[in-house]
């Protein structure tokens, strides 16, 4: 996979040289290019922003540098890349979207600063590229570089050969399949006793079926406690009789549509 990032702070992307992504780059599994947007400016101050039409606070990133940068980077490439625009007003970034993006051979990220990029840039490239406006959460950051780091790592770890164990991500929180709407439960390693704290006996039992059931129950409990919205959205078909019994034990009731809700909560028919 090829990844291009256009930014006014190339140094912010230095973490892409280390850890999982850095190793993937060194092994040729990921081809990352970071570009300084100011290279496509033509005034002595390398200006990339201006005041907003209609008034208001803040500055808006000018369309000319972005247009020149994207035209040069993308050119007439076939297939064209997916253009990913980090913005708090975009579609929420989740594991499903990470999987979608991991199937693309080429991603171009456009992390903005100030009040964002002139809307005409997005509209211009949406007419010829697959453009994804994406948010990493319901909060506002100083710029889009941090979200790019989040998305690149989430996507990169799904690429073949990047993880040492190809099955490592199958039991992740939000992983496709039975974990699609669940958070991963607690994990433990050696030593078996630390500061008078042991580990659950079931994990030492060697009984794979019981261990799998325990992990599943822990995932249900953690999700119910920390992200009850995910339990409410969980596909009833993904829950077996043991899951249902555990949810009832945790204080959830099955609604008329087969989905679970906190006991006592009104469910509209």
Describe this structure in words.
This protein is of the alpha/beta class. The chain has helices at about 20-25, 65-75, 95-100, 120-125, 145-155, 210-225, 230-235, 240-250, and strands at about 1-5, 30-35, 50, 60, 80-90, 105-110, 130-135, 250-255, 260. The strands form three sheets. The chain has a five-stranded parallel β-sheet with strand order 2-1-6-5-7. It has a two-stranded antiparallel sheet with strand order 3-4. A two-stranded antiparallel ribbon has the order 8-9. Helix 3 crosses helix 5 (about 145-155) and helix 6 (about 210-225) crosses helix 8. The longest helix is centred in the C-terminal third of the chain and has 19 residues, at about 210-225. The chain is elongated. The mean pLDDT is about 95.
């Amino acid at each position: 996979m090829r990844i291009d990032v256009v930014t006014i702070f190339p140094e912010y992307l230095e973490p892409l040289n280390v850890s999982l992504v850095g190793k993937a780059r060194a092994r040729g599994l990921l081809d990352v290019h970071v570009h300084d947007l100011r290279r496509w400016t033509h005034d002595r101050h390398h200006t990339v922003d201006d005041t907003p039409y209609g008034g208001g606070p803040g500055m808006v990133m000018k369309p000319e540098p972005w247009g020149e940068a994207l035209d040069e980077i993308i050119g007439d490439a076939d297939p064209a890349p997916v253009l990913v625009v980090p913005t708090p007003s975009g579609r929420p970034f989740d594991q499903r979207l990470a999987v979608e993006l991991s199937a693309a051979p080429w991603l171009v990220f456009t992390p903005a600063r100030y009040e964002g990029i002139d809307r005409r840039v997005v509209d211009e490239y949406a007419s010829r590229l697959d453009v994804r406006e994406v948010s990493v959460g319901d909060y506002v950051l100083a710029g889009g570089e941090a979200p790019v780091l989040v998305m690149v790592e989430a996507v990169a770890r799904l690429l073949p050969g990047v993880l040492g164990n190809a099955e490592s991500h199958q039991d992740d929180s939000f992983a496709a399949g039975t974990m699609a709407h669940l958070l991963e439960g607690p994990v433990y390693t050696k030593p078996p006793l630390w500061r008078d704290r042991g580990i659950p006996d079931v994990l030492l039992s060697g009984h794979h079926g019981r261990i799998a059931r325990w992990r599943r129950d822990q995932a249900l409990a953690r999700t119910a406690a920390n992200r009850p919205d995910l339990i409410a959205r969980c596909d009833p078909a993904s829950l077996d009789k043991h899951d249902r019994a555990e949810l009832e034990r945790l204080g959830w009731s099955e609604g008329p549509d087969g989905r679970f809700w906190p006991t006592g909560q009104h469910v509209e028919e």
